[in-house]
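Before any further analysis, backbone shapes were mapped to integers, which produced the following:

***
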Amino acid sequence: MIDFTFHNPTRIHFGKDSLSHLKEEVLRYGKRVLLVYGGGSIKRIGLYDQVMSILNELGATVWELGGVQPNPRLSLVYKGIDMCRENGVELVLAVGGGSAIDTAKAIVSGACYDGDAWDLFTGKGTNTETLPLGTIVTIPAAGSEMSNSCVITREEDQCKRGRNTPLNFPCFSILNPEYTYSLPPYQTACGVVDIMAHMMERYFTQVENVELTDRLTEGALRTVINNAPIVFEKPEDYDARAEIMWAGCLAHNTLYQTGRVGDWASHKLEHELSALYDIAHGAGLAIIFPAWMKYTLPRGGEKKLAQFAIRVFDVPEDFGTLEEIALEGIRRLEAFYRSLGLTTTLHENGIGAEDFDRMADRCAAMMGGSVGFFVKLNAADCKAIYELAL
């Protein structure tokens, strides 16, 4: 286990009555509110009316920024920054999933930065403060409600970039599993994959003697795997929805990375995929992660991948060699993804090899020529993984 500092400042209000805390939170930060959300889902489930009722009761002045899309766009971030500056916004409130929250994160930083907000994602610029940010979660997936991460896509060159900074932690987040009842099965499935990926990116490490965080992560993975089939069969099962929602929050709040160095190659590989093809992030991860596992297996990954297979997917320890155990674990992971209705190959999504060189080069270039820490990957390695995913 390596040295670490763990600090997460986000205040979580969880449960059926969690929205009742919105009033106290708004009063803590200010009544000039920018409301950021996606399409019509929050209006369809009645959440928009509930939020507006509370804000109106407080006498808050509200500006709305709707239309956030999956793989959130930089152009909407610019619009939100202008709205904050022009109206003296005191609190940005994101209602929705990771895309709405990431858009809001980029806005609160960009509003306190004198240059182009995209500079914050390329490393050309930095900020030291943000506007206060609150979130109300309707899609358990990205974990952005309690994370230091934010990912935005620049449309003009289909460039998708992430930014990790303590400034990205929301001030507060409200999580009510009931808000997830109406999620379509596809969105639920993509969310489950994203949650698991956030855990696995941290789990696959070359740092040894991290048993506690390993066991925490394995238990959380099994919890998601056990509860996912329940919500597909009974979408309004509160307890199963709650388990998945809380797991998604913990998966990305940096707890499971304490004492270790995470990998994150699969996320970088997927970002290039969804940037070019606009595939849902979770759907892309269901394709990329098994391919990454197969590639890293003979390159120093046997022990940890076998441990994953045994502890998470119950592959017997006497199944065979470490390689055979690991391969069976990968097979069971792919089978689980498919049980959710997702695909595990690129060709099933109409994606061929024509962009592999471009994707691989951009992926490796992001980190100065290599990506990942479990097994370091150069551009040729990245291309090979895309080929395995084909």
The chain is about 50% helix and 10% strand. The first helix runs from residue 22 to 29.
